[in-house]
Amino acid sequence: MTTKPEGVSSPPTARLPREESLGYQVNHLARLLERALRLRIEEHGVVPGQFAQLLALYEQEGLTQRELCERVQIEQPTMANTLQRMERDGLIRRVPDPQDRRQAKVLLSDRARELQAPLVAAAHEVNGAATRGLDPSETALLLRLIACAIENLESMGRP
Fold it and tell me: What is the pTM of this model?
């Protein structure tokens, strides 16, 4: 029989049902959203792993790799691989930054610009399916609550 060191107590209940776990529920939702998005965008030769970068570049073209990493919260090595695939797939091109030749600006290709409308429509369709049954104020509240949880966790790593 194992005994606990003195002063160490067990939590009131050592179980966490999945339906009560925020992490589990949000992760499950993210997987379902990704699957639904993949089904709608793969016909365009785009995968969900490229989608956040495209959205960021649709918002502001000409970002550096580092700026894209900050915008979409992806580590540099992952971003480098993703951008390489996007370049191979004809979605972006990289040009030297005129202010700092060591860096490159990421630009959308004509193909990526042509895909903007159908890709954004696919995202709206998936978001609509996910929020079916919610009225606009409930959807807005859901987004605010998610943003708050993200901010809470991001601030944990800050001094």
Answer: 0.81
